[in-house]
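Hi D.,

Good news: the full-assembly prediction came through. Inputs first.
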Amino acid sequence: MKKSKGFWLFLVVSIVVYGLVQLLISTGVLNPFYSNTLIYIVINIILAVSLHLVIGITGQFSIGHAGFLAVGAYMAAICTKLQVPFPLALVVGGVVAALMGLVVGIPSLRLKGDYLAIATLGFGEIIRIVFVNIEYVGGAAGMQVSHLTNWTYAFVCLIITLLVIMNFTNSTHGRACIAIRENEIAADAMGINTTYYKVAAFAIGAFFAGIAGGLYSHNFYIIQPTNFGFLKSFDILIFVVLGGLGSMSGAVLAAILMTIVSTFLQSYPETRMVIYSVILIVVMLYRPTGLMGTKEITSYFGKWPLGKGGRLHGK
Amino acid sequence: MDWIQQIINGISLGSIYALIALGYTMVYGIIRLINFAHGDVFMIGAFIGFYAIKYAGLGFFPALIIAMVICALLGVVIERIAYKRLRNASRIAALITAIGVSLLIEYGTIYLRGAQPEAFPQVLPSESFHFLGATISSTSIFILGVSVILMIILQFIVRRTKIGKAMRAVSHDAEAARLMGINVDRTISATFAIGSALAGAAGVIFGIYYTKIEPLMGVIPGLKAFVAAVLGGIGIIPGAAIGGFVLGLVETLVSALGYSNWRDAAAFIILILILIFKPSGILGKNTREKV
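Then the structure:
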C-alpha cells in the first residue's frame, strides 16, 4: 500500500515536471539551447541509472558502458534511416544493446573486480573499433542522423527507465543483486544463482544504455565512433561514483549536476576534464562511498520508499 | 624477406610494451592496484625526453636518464598523494582514483601546454643495413638493446638487491613482511619509482621510434601494456616482458596481413580470450579463492 502511494506520487510529480517544461518549450520561454541541455540531462540520467544498476546495485564494475550506448545509437540510427518509426527504432536499439550485453556479459562476468573492469573496457573498445570498420555506418567519418529526439520522447524514456530500475531494485531480483554486491560467495551459498542475476542486471543495464543511445544519436545530426570511446564510459562512471555507489537518486543528481557543469564549461574542454578528474580523486579520497552513499534522497524525508538501492528494509 | 622485417618491427614495438608492462605488473604485484596513470607517466617521460633533447640540447642517454629520474619522482608523488590513503579502501575506490589521476595528468598536460603534437628530434644516427634481404634500421636494434639492458637491470634489482628482496616479500604478504621489519611504505614507493622510471624510459624510446608525441599518446599504449601484463601473468615480472613481446609481434603481424584498422582490436581480443581461458596468464599459476 505504502509502495503504491510512492508510485502514484512519483507519477504525478513527473507529469507535472513534464507539463511544465513542455509548456515552457512550446511558449518559447526556454530557447533551443536550454531545451537541448534538458534533453541532454535526461539522456545522461538514463545512462547513469542504467550503469547504477550494474555497478551500484549488482556491484559489477563495468567500464565499457559507452559500448552499449554506441550499439543503441547506431542501431536506432540505422532503423530510422530505413524509415522505421522513431519509438520502434529506440526499442530496437535497446534490444540489440541488451543482446550485446548478454554476449559481453556471459563470458566476462565470470571475472571479478579489476579483471572484469578491464574486460568490459576491452569489449567497449572492440565495439567501437567494429563501428569504425563498418562501411555501411560511415566508418570513422560518421553517420548522418536525422534530428528526431524531443522532450516528450526523452522524458517518457526517462520515466520508464526510472520505474523499471526502481521496481527491479525493490523486487526479489534486486535483493538478490544487492546480496551479490555485498558478498558474492555468501550470496552463492544462500542459493542465489549469481551468474544469472549478474548477467540479467548487465543486460538490463545495456538495454537502457541502448535506449539512451537512440535518443543520443537522434539528438545530433551526425554520430562518430569517437563519440563512444572510453572517455564516454568514464563520464558515465563519474555520475554513478559521484552520486554514491548504490544510490539511484544520487546517480540522478550527479548526472544533472555534472551535465550542467560540463555545459557551462563546453568551450573549455581541458578545464572541464581537469575539474572532472580532480572531483573524482577528491571524492574517492575523502568520501569513497560517493556523495549519497547507498542512501536515497527519499530516506532524508523518511517517506515514500522509492528505489532503496542500499539497505534492505525488512518492514 | 618481408617477414623478417615485420618480426623485427614487432619486437621493437613489443619492447616498448614490455617496458610499460613491467611497471604495471610490479605495482599490481605489490598493492593489487591497476595503476591506470601508468600510461600517462609514459607520456610525461616522452615529453621530458623531448624537452631535454630539443631545448637543453642533450644527447639520447642524458635525456633518457633525466626522463627516468623525473618519472620515478612522479610515480612516488602519485603514490603518496593518491593511492596511499586508499590502501585499505575498496578496490573499486582505488581503481576510480587511478582513473582520476590518469585523466588529471592527461588533461593537466593539455591545459598547460596545449594538445598539439610535437615531432621528436632525431638524435640517433639512422643507418639501415641489410640482413637476409630485410632492411633493418639501426634505431630499432638500438632501442631493442636499451630495453633489454633495462630489463636485465630490473631483474638484477629484483633478484639480487635488498630492496628487491623486500619488494618480493611485500608482494607475497605485506603483513608478514611488516612483522619481519620491512618498511612496507618505503618498499611500495620504491616499486612505484622503479616502475615509473621504466615507463619514462619507454616514453623516450617511443618518441625516438615513432617521432610523434602528444598528451593523449599514453592511453592506448598504456592499455595495451596492461594487456601484455595480463597476458604474461600479472604480478610476474618475466611474464610482463614475454607478454609485451608477444603482443608487439601479434599487432605487427595483424597490420602486415592488411588488417591495420583492426590492430587495436587485436590486443583487446587477446585480452578477453586470455581472461576467459587462462586468467592467470602465460606464466601464472592457478590460485584458489579462500572464503
